Amino acid sequence: MTLSIRPAEPTERDIVADLWNAAAAWLHEQGQDQWQYPIRLHAIEAAIADRTCWLVWRAPGDPVATVTLDDFADPRLWLPEDQPGAGRYVHRLVVTRTGGPIPDLGSAILDWASIRAANVGATWLRLDAWTNNTRLHKYYLERGFHLVRSVYGPDISSGVLFERRAGAILGVGPRVVEDGSDGTARS
């Protein structure tokens, strides 16, 4: 299976928001407190404007995931000795739970992000995970990330830091290709 990925357009803000809200509801059903706050539309709008928010499509009109990939290293989490500029950062990775499962979709998106990070000269693909979502921590470890450290504080809910080498891929799941500006897919 081949999926298409491209930057989200301003008119697709609600698609991104709907994917995020569905994921938050699913997490709540799983007993997780992750993302149990009102959606931050301004963050989505800013990422769309910066062309760092991406949508993954199974077919036209069938979005299956969203991810933000950028160079923002939260200074409360990533310290100067981490060389924050050496990484690209995954934020708000969300996959749909409707329309039939796509095995290893998250892994395939992480592989795409890893290749993209390497292509811009980054050393690391990094992310932070919800502090008490140990199932998510295990997921990232199983996908080649290693634990950097955990950061705790009154205003930090997502403070478990992971990284893997940019360019490292697992090679499982569907193929994720970027849409070219001419409408063609490219790896």
- One letter per element, helices H and strands E, the order comes to EHHEEEHEHEEEE
CATH architecture: 3-Layer(aba) Sandwich
CATH class: Alpha Beta
Question: Roughly how many Å is the radius of gyration?
Answer: 16 Å
How many distinct beta strands?
9
The CATH topology turns out to be Aminopeptidase
The total of helices stands at 4
Mean pLDDT: 91
Which class best fits the helix and strand makeup? alpha+beta
| Biggest pleated sheet | 9 strands, mixed
End-to-end C-alpha gap = 14 Å
Q: Give the fraction of residues assigned to helices.
A: 25-40%
Kindly give the count of domains. 1
Kindly report the spatial arrangement of strands forming the biggest sheet. 6-7-5-4-3-2-1-8-9
